[in-house]
Amino acid sequence: xxxxxxxxxxxxxxxxxxxxxxxIVDGVPPNMELxxxxxxxxxxxxxxxQSVITTERKExxxxxxxxxxxxxxxxxxxxxxxxxxxxxxxxxxxxxxxxPRPGHAxxxxxxxxxxxxxxxxxxxxxxxxIGRVAAGxxxxxxxxxxxxxxxxxxxxxxxxxxxxKDEARALxxxxxxxxxxxxxxxxxxxxxxxxxxxxxGDWYDLTGKPIAKKAGVEVKGxxxxxxxxxxxxxxxxxxxxxxxxxxxDSTGGIAxxxxxxxxxxxxxxxxxxxxxxxxxxxxxxxxTKGFEIGAGFGCTRMKGSEHNDLFVPAHGAKAGVxxxxxxxxxxxxxxxxxxxxxxxxxxxxxxxxxxxSQQTATYDGKESALEVKGRHDPCVLSRCPPLLEGxxxxxxxxxxxxxxxxxxxxxxxxxxxxxxxxxxxRPAKRAKHA
Amino acid sequence: xxxxxxxxxxxxxxxxxxxxxxxIVDGVPPNMELxxxxxxxxxxxxxxxQSVITTERKExxxxxxxxxxxxxxxxxxxxxxxxxxxxxxxxxxxxxxxxPRPGHAxxxxxxxxxxxxxxxxxxxxxxxxIGRVAAGxxxxxxxxxxxxxxxxxxxxxxxxxxxxKDEARALxxxxxxxxxxxxxxxxxxxxxxxxxxxxxGDWYDLTGKPIAKKAGVEVKGxxxxxxxxxxxxxxxxxxxxxxxxxxxDSTGGIAxxxxxxxxxxxxxxxxxxxxxxxxxxxxxxxxTKGFEIGAGFGCTRMKGSEHNDLFVPAHGAKAGVxxxxxxxxxxxxxxxxxxxxxxxxxxxxxxxxxxxSQQTATYDGKESALEVKGRHDPCVLSRCPPLLEGxxxxxxxxxxxxxxxxxxxxxxxxxxxxxxxxxxxRPAKRAKHA
Amino acid sequence: xxxxxxxxxxxxxxxxxxxxxxxIVDGVPPNMELxxxxxxxxxxxxxxxQSVITTERKExxxxxxxxxxxxxxxxxxxxxxxxxxxxxxxxxxxxxxxxPRPGHAxxxxxxxxxxxxxxxxxxxxxxxxIGRVAAGxxxxxxxxxxxxxxxxxxxxxxxxxxxxKDEARALxxxxxxxxxxxxxxxxxxxxxxxxxxxxxGDWYDLTGKPIAKKAGVEVKGxxxxxxxxxxxxxxxxxxxxxxxxxxxDSTGGIAxxxxxxxxxxxxxxxxxxxxxxxxxxxxxxxxTKGFEIGAGFGCTRMKGSEHNDLFVPAHGAKAGVxxxxxxxxxxxxxxxxxxxxxxxxxxxxxxxxxxxSQQTATYDGKESALEVKGRHDPCVLSRCPPLLEGxxxxxxxxxxxxxxxxxxxxxxxxxxxxxxxxxxxRPAKRAKHA
Amino acid sequence: xxxxxxxxxxxxxxxxxxxxxxxIVDGVPPNMELxxxxxxxxxxxxxxxQSVITTERKExxxxxxxxxxxxxxxxxxxxxxxxxxxxxxxxxxxxxxxxPRPGHAxxxxxxxxxxxxxxxxxxxxxxxxIGRVAAGxxxxxxxxxxxxxxxxxxxxxxxxxxxxKDEARALxxxxxxxxxxxxxxxxxxxxxxxxxxxxxGDWYDLTGKPIAKKAGVEVKGxxxxxxxxxxxxxxxxxxxxxxxxxxxDSTGGIAxxxxxxxxxxxxxxxxxxxxxxxxxxxxxxxxTKGFEIGAGFGCTRMKGSEHNDLFVPAHGAKAGVxxxxxxxxxxxxxxxxxxxxxxxxxxxxxxxxxxxSQQTATYDGKESALEVKGRHDPCVLSRCPPLLEGxxxxxxxxxxxxxxxxxxxxxxxxxxxxxxxxxxxRPAKRAKHA
Lengths: 434, 434, 434, 434
Hints:
Chain A has one domain: Chorismate synthase AroC (Chorismate synthase, AroC fold). Helix content of chain A is about 30%, strand content about 20%.
């Protein structure tokens, strides 16, 4: 259904071409400062039309809070947030009335409901995620205020262009800030030209094969957001995306998310393990095809003697709190957070909408071909971080509230660094364990 | 918590060294034939002690149905199934009172609950999965009877030993039977000797490095179950495991699951997408670190024009039912089943219990070393198929019941082959879509 | 929390003096015709300011559907409905910042959340029920269309004025239409005068005690809605309310609800029995203090030999379908509907807001007195029917969807009378169900 | 379904004539002392065969804890408790294969599931409540330990025999102990004789009409448990029951429950109000037909100026905590506990099983008569207190855990009287809470 969470409960609504989209968030901690401005930042980061790399449809996605706050503070009651759709035209996608677009959901919606939204993705559109991003921004604010939790997501690969292994691991360990992801990941269009264009102005793809540059593809001086915080990789990603734009094709990639400075003890055995809840959260986002935590699929090639994270005393922490020398587990043991950062990666499929003509069949069983008109994202990866950060925040806050129900003591973040402690403005305390 | 599912609801209970383990299954379809024999098969497949590859602890895991059936038929009421623990000794793991075992959950249980089971894994032990396997066997029987659904899981890699890519894909397409997985995946011990032993009786690992064979490791004529349905890979897997047994180490691997002949239209947008529910189900199993569906992480390296599954008319099917030429999506679009097989892979971490001495720390913060006594599985992969099959069945049946609530017509399996139709003993019908 | 239901899930939001109120309804059956007009009728019936008996605040409560429909049909996706608040002034109730109003919830909200809405009831205001009424209207439309279900609620007592026992029972048996409730229950103001005023124009209460008539209380020719379908009782109720209005006091009453022509087999043993779900639904409405079904509290004075509803063959029904000679059980046995009408009564407390000065205490523990300004309903009973009808419809539809998940056959309404059959315009044995 | 609760989750299983009955309780607070002895007391109070007033079937109902504890302490993991059925004979009720017993659930189970347990009540039997009583005993222990909460239920009326109004109200205010209910409510058989028998040994009913005393009905010296803590009423109740036993008839009654010394702030607006959750809990018990809280149905006859509980400063309590002069609301405002005692009453229907021959119909639609053999309770009221106390405890603990998730401070019981403080053996303002 359209509701996620047990105590922090997010219900989203809205189709891409209906009147509006949004969410109700229930279980919001009371007495927290909250205005639209707290929400808008992530909605704006999520929004398309930010650069030539992503689609140019204009959406401003201005959020309104309809309930649950008074005088800028939460009441503890449900918060309804709405973003009205500015573009409600229903005719753009009319061909999809006759035959389904490959890779899209109109076929399965028809199988499920016996009907489908006539225009665009309806409920399966990425616009549905606006409600999640709004709810996520709210959750994140609470976690940051209360525990100093930081949640940062970045693009670690696009097609075959990936951050080199060692540097990828180093990034996961130090966890760049969200600002760094946005800034470092922004590639000036000229950088792409340097990669793809030779001195004659002829374009070649990354393998050196000449490509026919279509007019209007590049925009002088434009900023291409990759959200990859590794500059040389970011530039090559931008080039790869430009190639695909020219080829009227698309691709996918991998996004890495780190959640750090979070309480130990989160996750509800046995079915609601922290990694199970995160996997569900991430795999419920459109276009996701894989999820891994810690060493992930890579761990299957390791030996137990390598993979086991050895326990070490945690310097300066109170009795009962241990650290681990490594974090192959990605912050979870037995489905419960250790207090180490949660490190997870999500596979995003190539965008299904491509301008090329594709083979398909009509609903009444005749072969047909389909060209999906309009401007399409060759790669949606750069828009994903607010979605993944949002779902991560929602998931963690729900588990926080569930764990709070179990104890009378405040939850603790076991292994704060000195820097994090200062960030929190309070000592790294922990609950007593007799 | 310990309950999974919305309408088909499975609640498990039990610690590894308590009186017993089991489950309550609620929402069971009434009037279905069911006796302990239907459940026992999968419990027996799950059980350790089946060969020298897995641990030799003896457990018979005999299941008793306490409620919900009469005269061998389900009543529609909750079915409680119990397996009593035969070995309730609590002293084997006493050293874990002082310091946590690396890779195990006693540390996080202590963080979460302020206490932990004193012996073995308690609730985080693999014995907890007995309740799931029992519930899964029940779900599977219903799905097979009603829709002809087949759910088969096999081991596709162990450490670096993996089924070659093309053959792996071919296996996914044809989907071997469970019997084939068990039979073909069973390696006579002599086969391992052929791989690892030279004519002088000296042993070498798979890279040609000599290994010191420990007495008692090999058992003449024993059968080593790998559950890899690709014979040459199975033999090499068995050899790799034998090497690790000798080295007192462990490893992980990847298990592939195929669910075929299932209704189209399953999966509840937006949070309870079929892949989201399956991801949660699988990532809630102990030792799982990654999940992917269809082309999975591999899809991130594809182009949209390659990855999109093109629609084609479904020969012989009724109007409104289409097929796809390929199945890169792994049977789901927009979180709803297409009717094509669901194909998923799960990463299992190296077994945490190894006989080697490992560094750890005492709960009161002193460095320490720990040897976990007893016989340990160097690799748990071969025991996983009943677990994954069980969770898959539970997840799909829950989604089936949820979809049934939406329609007055029986659900249909869109793309039955002639063979499957015979299996079901009825025509491949589908719901009307006006 | 603010969500009700398992498969038909209603989440409400909104404070009385915030921007708006409304709901998300998830699990809506697809392909059903639905426009704002279907919803507005019940919202308008619920609205205050309809007569001098109820408060004169003007609210138009115009509903907008933001999502989940296209071209006037439901898509099966969540339907968000919003009613904007026209009066968002926050100053009317400012004295409640210092001390809580007796009988209101601001004190307990403060205990629970550590804060409270500064104006009026906030979330505990009756405006919250707008979302329920909207969702209920939707549910009701589906039930009426599919099964011919009728849900009618009326006022059976106000303070000591009640429909005589035998006639109350007869009404429950024949179940008046909603139109009858509205029409017959509307008392012309002159009728009240006839009851309370003597030939000299002096007013007396129903016991014959003279009352000081305040100027402006009566409105010549105004219609006083009681929603009591028993004319002599309605007139006396109107008189009693007028007395209380003059006395600046209030009272409560009992509302009776009948749900008829509904499928047998609804209700989920053991915790989600139909009477348990209905009890929760009704007791979740503001101001409700009691619930009973069938003979209710009265059954405790009966003998088993009187109370047991004897089974009789159902003439013309299919084998296996029985009728009962009486319906003391109120349509449920073992928590499952028999197919006979569900008959339930709900006790509503005296309205807490009265114009009289009342004793209270300030939050910091000093004695104080409070006059709650503004016009208040002396009795909210006449506004309750749309609320109770709405909650009944929501509850029953949720149970219908849950039962549908259990069977491949359409649910049936066992015991339609000939009249009901004509009403439904189709044969009795199976609704829709061709 | 068979699961109740959000965080404290109780799932029951078992049919009356299957192998056993019981429950899984999830969300149990860890580190609490718990053994079978803590559970057995209430199970024994619930058990039939305690006196001639109740049925003489022998059931010992010995509970076994299968999981979730170690060394007599809870682990925080699910606790499975089982009571094996000693009498599994299936032939006693064989006539019910042909026609349903009036007032019983076999007819509706058949409508719902298409099948029914062939013997006795199956899942609708009162034996199902064993799991609830066991879970309730556990919940109650936690509440008593943590907050000093007391939950006491007693029988306040049987048929027309009721505690006089004023004394009933006084009892609700002082809340007798459970021991008092059991002791004072136990009527020596001789007392019944004094009421019903004249000096000649002839028996007359309470209205003076002679009754034919059947042999074997009275047992010299036997104790008749009424659980009515008002001696004169208890004696008359016992007499009324004896009359009905002789007449082979049955009756119902009202049970009153008081929950006192509980935290303020419990209850989750808007659907999960404390009275809504309690209503559902109580109405989910077999044979319940009505629920009311505080003044209940009686409040409908009051004026607002009488019914409103006026706030008064709470002497000695902390700032922000108020008391009310009266408790007509029964401890709840806006669905949230005030900290005053919750006072609720539940209507229980006449026992459906009577030895008299009753009219019924066969499932294939022929008229028939049915005599239900065996010994039957003329009135089940005296067995109800452990059921209602159990459901009350389960409901309150679930709401406690939900409220704890909202705050970092321990919950507090606002308004302990001096007497309650002594009872708890600790200071009033904050329970436990060091």
